[in-house]
Amino acid sequence: MSRTPAAGPAAQVLSLDTLVRISRGRQRPGPPRRLPLPEGMKVPLGCDAVSVPARFGPLLLARLPRVGCVYAGPAHWWWIVPSDSDVALEWPAPAHYVTGAVVADSPRFPGLIHKPDGMLPYTPPIPLYLALCRITGTTPAWSRPVSA
User: What are phi and psi of 70, to 5 degrees?
Assistant: First the structure.
């Protein structure tokens, strides 16, 4: 007679996504400082951010058909996107993708410079990604040749 181990609380299986999120959480020392969303905003898809150098901010703003919450500091602009907008996307340098819309310690916390008319704070990630690729001269990941 063969015996199989009983499944119970100790037999929990963690997905790769869960392990990545746990790893990301360990990398931040101290309490996280999240970009504060305006009152009344809803985040049904979670909340991450894409940081770009400030010199790109106005160029991106002019190229996007729809813009969510945008924050600006002296060196960077931050665009709110739905959680996991980095899945299968390699955001072009010098952009920086930030899980949880957490801003690294900086002398000045970024201020809100654009608030959308609706209840959702998101800038659609694909148009943002494509505009950023265009500005930086980067070929989108799905357009690059595959090497054998």
Answer: -130, 135
Pairwise pLDDT comparison (133 vs 26), residue with the higher score: 133
Quick: pLDDT tens for 86-108: 988 889 999 999 999 988 766 67
The pLDDT of residue 67 is above 90: yes
| The pair of three-digit structure tokens given for residue 123, joined into one six-digit string | 């800038």
